[in-house]
Request: fold
Amino acid sequence: MKLTKKSHACIRLEKDGRALVIDPGVFSEEDAAVGADAILITHEHPDHFDEERLRAGLEAAPAAEVWTLKSVADRLSAAFPGRVHTVGHGDTFTAAGFDVQVHGELHAVIHPDIPRITNVGYLVDGGRVFHPGDALTVPDLPVETLMLPVMAPWNKIAEVIEYVREVKPQRAYDIHDALLTDLARPIYDHQIGALGGAEHLRLAPGTSAEV
Reply:
C-alpha cells in the first residue's frame, strides 16, 4: 500500500490502481481529493472537511463515493445522490477495494465550554493504517501504521506520546501538523521518537512511503 502525505490531516492511500483519500480540508492542497475513488471524512471541522475540495474530487470522478458521519453527509447527499454514505462507530464497509472499520464517536475536548462534536476514525485493511481524525481513539485491533495528530489546539505533547504508547503501532507518521513550525519540529521528533515506543516518522506534503 502506498501512503502519500498531503498537507495537514489529509492522506492518500493507493493499492491495485485505486485511491482512497482521507480528510481533504482547507489546509490541504486544492486538488487533494481529485483522482480519488473513495473519500473518507472524519468530522465537520474545515481543516478536515472542505466542501469545495470534496466536490472537486467527486466531479472529477463520477464513480467516486464518500463515507462520513451524518453532519457532513447531510451537506452533500442532495448534490450527489447515492454517492454519500453515513457511518458511525462499529460500522464496516469496503471503499475502492479497501476494507474499513469505523472507530470512535466524539471529537477530543478543545475546552469544556465548547460542545463536543462527532468524530470517527478509520482503520484500513485490518489495521494496516489508522487515521483517528481529531481524537485519541484506540482501536480494538493492532495497528501497523498510526496517523498521529501531532499538534492541535486540543492536545499537548505528553498526550501525543501516551497515545502512541497505548496504540502500540509499528510506526507513527505525523498528521495534523500545519500549525507546527519548522523550528519546533525537532523537539517533537526527538521527544515522540524517544518516548513513544514506536518508530516515529514524518513525510513532507507530496511525498510517499510504502506501508
Remarks:
- The radius of gyration is 16 Å.
- The mean pLDDT is 97.
- The CA atoms of residues 70 and 117 lie 11 Å apart.
- The chain has four helices and 14 strands.
